[in-house]
Amino acid sequence: MPVAVGEVIGLSIVTIGIYGVIRFYQVCKRYLDMQPKNDSNFEALFWTWIGIQLVGVLTLGIGIGVLAILASIAIGAVILSDIIAVRSSALKAHGIDLPLTSAGTHIALWVVGSLLSFVLVGIPILVYQAVRFFQDNERIVSAWASPQDVQAN
To answer: Which burial class, exposed, middle or buried, applies to 88 when counting CB atoms under 10 A from its CB (0-12, 13-18, 19+)?
Structure first.
């Protein structure tokens, strides 16, 4: 199921990011389904990340809030690394070779954008990272639907 990038960005703005997080979760679950034999910790990491985000937001006025937000940034980077490795492995197993955004690029954009979001400069960086993630997903969905048009490894 494709994810319209504009829809995700627009509805994420309206829902203060909640819609984007839900769509991210759905896409990641689909990647896990593409590669059923994996040792991903996505599920545990994702819900830990959500919990730490909530603690961080609710306690931002005191020291623990900042520490929780910093921890959630680190966990977010681990989640991206994990799910992109699963995605890459699944595509390789199915003989699909696509030009996709690298894990390093996603992680760098996530970390820099998250750290700078405290001064609002990071928000466009995070939006750009999300756009890249969902554009990659659109390429994968298209390739999955018509594998004859995709280069094999």
So the answer is: middle
Nearest to 141 by CA among 25, 33, 30, 53: 30
Residue at 34: amino acid letter: M
97-142 residue pLDDT tens:
999 999 999 999 999 999 998 888 999 999 999 999 999 999 998 8
Better-predicted residue by pLDDT, 115 or 12? 115
The CA radius of gyration of the chain, in Å to the nearest whole number, is: 16
* pLDDT(13) > 50: yes
Phi, psi of 151 (to 5 degrees): -65, 140
Residue 146 region by backbone torsions, left for phi larger than 0, else alpha for psi between -120 and 50, else beta: beta
pTM as predicted:
0.86
Q: How is residue 44 written in tokens?
A: 């545990």
Residue 117 contacts by C-beta under 8 Å, 6 or more apart in sequence? Answer: 123, 126
Q: What is the pLDDT of residue 151?
A: 46
Nearest one of 26, 22, 32 to 2, comparing CA atoms: 26
